[in-house]
Design goal:
5 helices, alpha+beta
């Protein structure tokens, strides 16, 4: 993003429950930007899920290792970057190559877990995952205009 404006940047202790703080601060930072209520709720859900993943899988629920959250606006796009210190290895066992299948999960053919990234992908307009050394970032993109509700 070339002309992106940073709306907010903050860190959270990697403690279960802090995803609620993340979604509240993100929602507050994008208030008034024209994001329809239904899309705001989807963004909040994606932020909460990505933050939970960062806390649990990335930072191992270690309160001393912060989760970083940054919100930017560029034109009609809002991006939320959620970064942990888990590196790629923290996620290798948690990323399946196939979408979750409820029937397979009930039959025991898939682990009961594994809904997180699937849910996130389906809540926002785009989701990108990058790893740079130990820094693992999920970048969520939501358009304020022209997106589906």
């Amino acid at each position: 993003m070339t002309n992106a404006t940073r709306l907010i940047a903050f860190t959270l202790a990697s403690e279960p429950g802090n995803e609620r703080l993340a979604l509240a601060r993100v929602a507050e930072s994008v208030a008034g930007l024209g994001l329809p209520a239904a899309r705001l709720e989807r963004l909040k859900t994606a932020v909460a899920e990505a933050t939970m993943n960062a806390i649990e899988h990335g930072n191992g629920n270690r309160a001393d290792i912060p989760v970083e959250v940054e919100v930017r606006k560029d034109g009609d796009q809002i991006t939320v970057a959620i970064t942990d210190q888990g590196g790629l290895e923290a996620y290798e066992n948690n990323q399946g190559n196939e979408d979750p299948d409820l029937l397979k999960k009930l039959q025991g053919a898939q682990t009961p877990r594994g809904w997180g990234l699937f849910l996130i992908r389906n809540m926002v307009d785009a989701m990108d995952v990058t790893t740079d050394g130990q820094r693992h970032t999920i970048l969520l993109t939501m358009r304020t205009e022209g997106g589906s509700t």
